[in-house]
Amino acid sequence: MATANVGAGKIGPNAILQLLPVLEAEGGRALRDRMLAAAGLTAPPSDAGMMDEAPAAAMHQALRRELPDRAPELARAAGLATGDYILAHRIPKPAQALLRRLPVPVAAWLLARAIAQHSWTFAGSGRFEVLSTRPLAFRILDNPVVRGEHADHAICDWHCAVFERLFTTLVHPDYAVRETACCATGAPACVFEITRR
């Protein structure tokens, strides 16, 4: 199940908006404002509609560059908050209730399908695909959030946390998400496996 870049070059503003309070809690307004400046922004983006993916990518990359030891935890906190936002504002409550009542494999498949249909909100100009359903695995080819970065390990902690929050809340609390390949390490795609613990 592949999804074309419907929002090519655009990404959901929560890629930044949910990171800002995490940054402020970590280092005050000074850190938050420094990361906004690194993203080329003078103020937070609007929460209405989509935004250009470049500032979001620049902020995540600046976080990893400037706070390498703290970046995974901070990106994870922002990803969990993004998942919470999606649950509160983007997935209708009746759909959430239905997913929680369905058998786990069916709920996981339906949630994966919904994520694929809305992948442009977090994959931007990258190409999102559901690779398999057993085990459940996603990939983002040419992931804009890590585009141009080089690392010796997977660095998509924000994406992992978003997926984890959605699956543990809507499908089963024992789900875990692990990035098994990352564009930043030279892989052709960032690959995320969603499995039961």
Please render the helix and strand layout as text:
Blueprint: E1 2-3, E2 10-11, H1 14-17, H2 19-38, E3 51-52, H3 53-66, H4 71-89, H5 93-101, H6 104-117, H7 120-123, E4 127-133, E5 136-141, H8 157-170, E6 175-181, E7 189-196
Antiparallel strand pairs: 1-4, 2-3, 4-5, 5-7, 6-7
Helix pairs in contact: 2-3, 2-4, 4-8, 5-6
InterPro entries: BchJ (IPR010249), NO_sig/Golgi_transp_ligand-bd (IPR024096), V4R (IPR004096)
Organism: Rhodobaculum claviforme
Protein name: Bacteriochlorophyll 4-vinyl reductase
What does it look like?
With 197 residues, this protein is of the alpha+beta class. The chain has one domain (2-196): Alpha-Beta Complex (H-NOX domain). The chain is 50% helix and 17% strand. A hairpin with a 7-residue loop joins strand 6 and strand 7 (189-196). Helix 2 (19-38) packs across helix 4. The longest helix is centred in the N-terminal third of the chain and has 20 residues, at 19-38. Residues 135-196 form the 4-vinyl reductase 4VR domain.
